[in-house]
Amino acid sequence: MNNKSVYFPLALLLALTMIGCGGDGMVRVTGTVTFDDNTPVTRGSLYFSSGTYAASGAIQPNGTYTLDAKPGEYIVIVEKNWDDPIDEDGKPIGPDTFEVDSKYTSRDTTDLKYTVEAGKRNVYDIVVERKK
Description:
This protein is mainly β. It has one helix at residues 3-18, and strands at residues 27-35, 45-49, 54-58, 64-69, 72-79, 113-116, 122-123, 126-128.
């Protein structure tokens, strides 16, 4: 038996056990963010917050997101990008095109809650309402 026939199965086993956890206890979380009319949220940031830990990911133009989080219970917050231009009072310069309802921008008002689990596929398609 040569060394390749011994090492390849071991390397494959190691790689498969680390998929989705990054080797440091983190778990990959993916999904989409859409409005309740099924159109994608095209920009912003998503935060999975446990109160003591937070993970974030950018919402892509097609509504998809990817982030790495520790296993646990999370409240999810959706915010506009911090690099959107604002004036010295914190108000948007130009039209405010972030359409997500403000109830999703705070831990106190969001109703989005998800559990991230180790060893499982964590795909969460998140539906939000438009700004009223």
